[in-house]
Every structure is written in structure tokens, then in C-alpha cells.
Amino acid sequence: MNFENILTESENGIFIITINRPKQLNALTKSTIKEVGAAVKIANGDENIRGIIITGSGEKAFIAGADIKEFANFSVEQGKELSAHGHDVFNSVENSHKPVIAAVNGFALGGGCELAMACHIRIASDNAKFGQPEVSLGVIPGYGGTQRMAQLIGKSKAFELLMTGDMIDANEAERLGLANHVVEQANLMEFTKKLLTKIIKKSPYAIGKVISCINDSYSNDKNGFDTEINEFGNCFGSADFKEGTSAFLEKRKAIFTGK
Ligand code: CAA
Fold it and tell me: Residue whose CA is closest, atom 18 of ligand 1?
């Protein structure tokens, strides 16, 4: 598939999605979001891919938000449609059964911070800045930011960040639990790939179930504890469980198929 706003590459089981609009600090247009959704779908359907990294092009920005130029004259209906589309795609990132890591290489603002928060893990370069500045524009986060920010860092700090629109640096993001790690920019992709490689060597079947169990605890219509009971049991019927336990007992390394 040909993309106009993103680059994709795969190496060693990892699919890398790079938002590629550096002149606009990788601002997300509607079609860019659509392409991200399509790329995540491709990665999830490819059995050679076991994990996904999302990053931005250049050294200045991960993503500086939704493209303000594009939505400046939108109507109420167009605003709702834009938000609903963003929700669909960002939910598909969060619910990807393969692990998704954001390599945040600079500004992660508005929709950019929201996309990073939809990923399972965030690694920040030392120049990264996170924030939800929407209230400065007379709007609110529209891609899940009001929900995921509070889930990740707690209601009180989320209120402060969303109401002031302040940016925080990478170290503060790590302190708040928004970023998992802070690394030098030159080391960002290497560190992120190393972490993801460690994860994808584990059972893909089990990793997918960890993702659903945690996500279900934040869902209104599901109970994460019930999901855990059910999926724990289901693991016993998987080839990965047979392989993992046999490998342990035979004192060898497991070779997982994800089945
Ligand atoms: N949308 C469209 N264009 C953007 C953009 C955005 N979100 N962010 C940056 N750009 C463009 C600028 O317009 C500029 O383009 P021109 O050269 O054509 O003028 C180019 O990127 C470089 O940006 P700056 O010259 O502003 O760079 P800077 O270093 O001076 O400032 C910045 C960097 C602080 C990130 C600043 O660009 C900025 O504040 N950007 C907007 C951030 C923002 O408000 N994001 C939230 C958007 S709303 C949203 O995301 C809603 C939602 O939840 C769905």
C-alpha cells in the first residue's frame, strides 16, 4: 500500500510507522490518521510482525497535534466526525494485540500526545515535550486525551495539564508515569527497538492477552478481572503455553509461534 504521510518499514519482526510531515512538525491531518490506522491493520495481519513502533520524522517533533489548518473552519458536525475517526484509529492502536511503543522524539502535543498515550509504552528522547494545549485554541483533546491522560497520570494532574495547556519536559513526563523511560535522542530508536525485541521474544499469544486484560479494566462494559480468569484459562489451550512450559522443563529456549 502506498502512503503519502507516513513511512513504514519492517525489520526483525518490528514494524516501524514514521509520521512523515516534518515541515508541519508531523501534524496529523485526517488522511494521516487514516494511514496510521491502515498501517496498524497491516502490521496486525502480518504474521512475521510481532511488534510496532510509532515515531515522528526529524529531530524536532513526534507530532505537534492535529493539523490546525485543516480543522480551523470545521462545523460542529465535522468536528464530531473528526473526533470519532480519531477515536476509532487510536482505539485500534490501544487494542492492537501486538505491542505498540511510541518513540517520542520531540514535541508530542495535542493529538500527538494522544497517539503516544494510545500506545502501550512511551519512550521519550531527552528533548521531548508533552502537552495538551487544546484549550489555548478554544477546543478540547478529541482523540481520547481527556480519558487516557487521567488513566495514565491520575485525575488531579490530568486536570492541571489539560486546563493549563502547559507542556512538560521528558523528565517530568517520566516522573508522572507518562513516559516509561527517557533516553538521549541519538539513542532513542536503538533503545526502543531493544525493549520491543525483548518483549517480542516472549509468547505473542500471552502478550496479546496481557494487552486485553489491562485494557478491559479501563472499559465500561468489561471487567478486567473476569477477562484475566478467562484468558488465563485460554492460555492452557495455546501452543505457546505448551512450548513455554516444555522448554522450561527441557532446559532450552522457547520458540514461540503465537498460536
Ligand atoms: N497544525 C498545523 N501546523 C502546525 C502544527 C499543527 N498542530 N504545529 C506546527 N505546525 C506548523 C507551523 O504552522 C509551522 O508551519 P509554517 O512554517 O508553514 O508556518 C511549522 O509547523 C513549524 O512550526 P513553528 O514555526 O510554530 O515551530 P516553533 O518551533 O516555533 O513552535 C510548537 C513549535 C510549539 C510545537 C508550535 O508549532 C505549536 O504550538 N504548534 C501547535 C501545537 C498545538 O496547539 N497542538 C494541538 C493541536 S489541536 C489538537 O491536537 C486537537 C485534538 O486533540 C484532536
Answer: 24
